[in-house]
Amino acid sequence: GNSVTQMEGPVTLSEEAFLTINCTYTATGYPSLFWYVQYPGEGLQLLLKATKADDKGSNKGFEATYRKETTSFHLEKGSVQVSDSAVYFCALSGPYNAGNNRKLIWGLGTSLAVNP
Amino acid sequence: EPEVTQTPSHQVTQMGQEVILRCVPISNHLYFYWYRQILGQKVEFLVSFYNNEISEKSEIFDDQFSVERPDGSNFTLKIRSTKLEDSAMYFCASTGPGQGARGYTFGSGTRLTVV
Known about the structure:
heterodimer, A: four-stranded antiparallel β-sheet, globular, B: mainly beta, seven-stranded mixed β-sheet, four-stranded antiparallel β-sheet
């Protein structure tokens, strides 16, 4: 079945450091891929998404590229800030099909702490 | 921006008691979901709901769980007889027609503590 594997945390970086959080997936066909962020004490917020191979999702300085050949969707940011401290979840859903109800399958989450 | 609203934000209940977690999805959304996140673990799909019936459920969603859309605005998750292992954060989500998983909006969650 479909699954998502994320690098384990916690990840601790200094402000302005480069961030990579690895995510690989197993799925049939062409799933949609997502990164969600959960700030301390808050709910789940969509950070970015990509729905087909070679798409790049981006938001708030974060980027991830849908790589079909390596089944990966790694999250990157060139210069992290203290306010980026949160838990990041990689997730996938089945191939997009208009009108279809699609559940999300989640990675374990990676905790990021950014120190000033 | 439209929101998914969940109440209560935190509920403490005794083992064996029934709990009802409430959600108000976005008004023009048609697909509704419950997920849970046990502390420190991954987010897990529980159930999806469309057209007033369950469209998919996970193996976690056993006979102790039920969902309902009683009045066209609320979407509830009932746990009939809570167990200690039901302690988790429960998230409600909804999506609109044609959006699939791309259009998820999550609520801020209900933290359920079973003692």
